[in-house]
Every structure is written in C-alpha cells, then in structure tokens.
Predict the structure.
Amino acid sequence: MRTPLQALIRCVPVAFLVSGAAFAASPEADFRSAYGRADAAEQEAGRLRNQWLATEAALADARKAAEKQEFETAIAAAKEAEALAKASIFQATSEKDAWKNLEIR
Amino acid sequence: MRFLLISLAALQLAVTESVAAGGIDPAADARAFRKFFVEKFPNVKLDDFANGPYSLNEDMRRQWEEKEQFPPYEFSLEAGKELFAKPFANGRHYADCFPEQGIGIRQNYPRFDQKSGQVITLELALNQCREANGEKAISYTGDDMAALTAYMAFTSRGKLFDIKIPDDSRALEAYENGKRYFYTRRGQLNFSCATCHVQHPGERLRAEVLAPALGILNAMPIYRSEWGGMGTTSRRFITCNSQVRGVPLEPQAEEYRDLEYFLSYVSNGLPISGPGSRP
C-alpha cells in the first residue's frame, strides 16, 4: 500500500520525462508549422505563376537546417520564405491591373 | 442538347465581345510601339532596330561589324544545316513539316494555330515535327534547337516579320496575354520585360547595353559570349526571368509563347537578322 506521498514521488520523474519530451519536440513542431505556412504561400505564388528564386532558396535552407536538427535556424529561414512568398503574391495580385501603367499607347 | 449548343454559342459570343470590349487592337499597339522607339531614337533607321543594342551604341557596333567577318554562330549554322537535312528514322525530314520546305519561313513564326487554339513558335513546330515522325523531342534550350533555328533564320535573313493574328478571339487573347506578360513586373527585383527594353534601352546594365524591345526577336537565336554558346528564344526568356530573381517558367510555357507572339507581331515589317551575336 503506497502512501499519497510515495505515489507523488513516483510520479515526479515521469512528469519530468513527459514535459521534457514535449519541450524537446516543440522546436520541431514549431518548424513544421512555420514551414507549412511558407510552403502553402509559395504554392499560391506558383498558382499565380510568380515564384521568386529567393523564396525557393530560403525554403531549401530551412529544410537543410531542419535535417541537421538546427530548428532555430530552420524556423528563421521558413519565416523568411513565408514573407518572400507573400511579397510575390502581393506583386502578382497588384500587377493584375498595374501592368497597364507601363503600356506604350 | 439544343439548349446546350445555344448556350455555348452565346458564351463564345460573350467572350468575343468581351475581348472586343476590352479594346484589344494589335494594329494600334504596333503603331504606337514603333512610334515610341522611332521618336526615342530619331537617329536609328527603322530596319536597324533588328540589330538590338548595336543600333544604339557606336562602339559596340564597330566591334560587332568586325566580329561578323568570322561570326561566332557560324559553327552552329553549319550544324543546323546538317541536322535539318538529316532524315528521321522513317525517312522523312524536317522540311516535310513546313511550308516552302522550311526555307525562308522564319518571318511567319510564331503563328496562331486555329485547330489547337494555341500559339506555335518555330521551336515548338520543330519538336511537333519530330514527334509526328516518331522522334523524341529535343531540349528547347539546347544546342541542337539553337542550331536548327539558326539555320532556318539564316535562310530568312532580310525577310520582314509578317505575323498574323487571325480573326479568332483566342488569337486575340493569346496576343493580349503576351502583352500583359511583357509589361507585368515580376521577380524579387520587381522588373518587367518593359523595364529594361522600353524604359532603358541603350543604357548600361552592368556591362550590357540593353536592347530595344522593337525588333528584339529578329536576331534570334543568338550566340552570347556570356553563355559561351548559342541560345534559343526559350533560353533568352528563361534567363531574363532568372536575372530579375524570378523562378522561370518551363520552356515553351503558354506565357512564353504568347510573349513571343506579341513581341514578334509588334515588330512586323522589320527584317529577320538572325542568327545574331551578343556580348
């Protein structure tokens, strides 16, 4: 028969293990989330036929860093890729009409 | 069924009317295009725009004229002549796929094919010819395609660009798509084709002198010292996209073919000068 204190003592290492595992998994999860957002934005730019080389390079950097478990670097690269992809989407969207400003008439 | 056919006819009419209502007028565009460049460069003879940057820069012109004594595209021209004459496995030739046996016809490409409803460039026509005769398509950016188009351009030298836009709303749309592509800013540098070739022709971009858009395809394909070899129109468009930090489209993408259609049409009346050479 265990006392409540004994049960609590037994639970403490387990709790540490669980929280430690969650802590360890979170940078990877954060990377996956950041990369997913960047990739979705880049695919949208692709549908608009207006992807940028810098976005592709940033996505590749993010993947490479993640493979090396360097999640901080990977997340930063993914965020940069997302910002670049969104800029290319903005460009393609605004150019739907803006191109006429350059037209020789 | 009858209702469906009537609906489709109405839709087709609506598309045609919307194109007309959109004010697509290629002939007026071509006049304005030519006027813009003639007024911008009053000392350049109209035909000379077919020579790209050499029409705008005296020093470059002198060097080019000397280089033309032993032109760097000559080896490609010879290879193209041989490739063009070489029979396919079935015994037929490229010549069998083209009007006039493919000689002296460069000025008529790209053309709009009303059967397929798409723009057919010379490069695409060559590969369609290969595939129709059981051969594999060749790379649009490779040496063989450059050589074949160099030979075909050479047999058309001096002939005036004569691009037709048939009375077909799809042809007008293709033309308009090409025009839109030409003026649309893209890539991280936020450049359109017009940024360099309308707003800044004759000016330097690093070591290069930018060519005017009028007549810009007349010299294609070209030998580029920068490439150390020949390049097709496909290669040129892809390089331009990369230079403005954009991801290039696939060679002979619809957008590129439409762009070629637009640029060739507005250069109607200017002589074919290809193959050419550029720094």
Remarks:
- Chain B has a mean pLDDT of 93.
- The first strand of chain B starts at residue 111 and ends at 113.
- Residues 2-21 of chain B form the longest helix (20 residues).
